[in-house]
Write a structure and sequence with these properties.
Helix content is 39%, strand content 24%. By secondary structure, the chain is α+β, with helices and mostly antiparallel strands. Helix 1 runs antiparallel to helix 2, helix 1 packs parallel to helix 3 and helix 2 packs antiparallel against helix 3.
């Protein structure tokens, strides 16, 4: 008389779990190794299924995190490109009271020139380094930021839509965009 069991044996469940785990490509090598070790010592099918469910959830979260990071990077890149396209190769002429007499040229080759014809200068100071760039970072809540290569000071950029731009740091400095 041969009795046939219902369902898989523990070793069958473990083998299936190993195969499933190896297909989870979003887990780091160390996390996958940790789950493999836990599957190896799992005493029964219920424990194996529990470890596998945890691994699947971690894999799905990792996939979602990667997708969100890629989407954020693409959105940030779009903001950078739009801002650079507007500011590259233009001269910013001081408009707000603190910036009258200040002219900042952001050249297409990513170098800059500045003329400061006012005393005292309460607008943007003479930047350090010879290059400029636009970045987006979490510190500025996803807004574009003008940086100079060797300068710790960052200016949050607002394209006002009326031919002006505002650069914000310790104050808001408004400029007219001139080609």
């Amino acid at each position: 008389l041969v009795l046939s069991g219902c369902g898989n044996s523990v070793s069958d469940d473990r083998a299936e779990a190993y195969a499933s785990l190896s297909s989870m490509t979003s887990l780091s090598t160390s996390r996958a190794q940790e789950y493999k070790q836990r599957l190896t010592v799992a005493p029964d099918s219920a424990a194996i299924k529990s470890v596998l469910a945890e691994a699947k959830a971690a894999n799905e979260k990792s996939q979602a995190d990667k997708a969100a990071a890629a989407a954020k990077e693409a959105a940030d890149d779009k903001i950078v490109k739009k801002t650079e396209a507007t500011l590259s190769g233009v001269t910013l002429v001081g408009l707000s009271d603190a910036c009258k007499g200040v002219t900042l040229t952001l050249k297409a080759d990513k170098t800059w020139d500045i003329e400061i014809n006012r005393t005292p200068n309460n607008c943007i100071g003479e930047p350090k380094g010879k290059n400029w760039k636009i970045v987006v970072n979490d510190q500025h809540e996803g807004k574009p930021v003008l940086r100079f290569s060797e300068d710790a000071i960052a200016y949050e950029v607002t394209l006002n839509g009326d031919g002006t731009v505002s650069l914000e740091n310790s104050g808001v400095y408004k400029f007219t965009i001139s080609k």
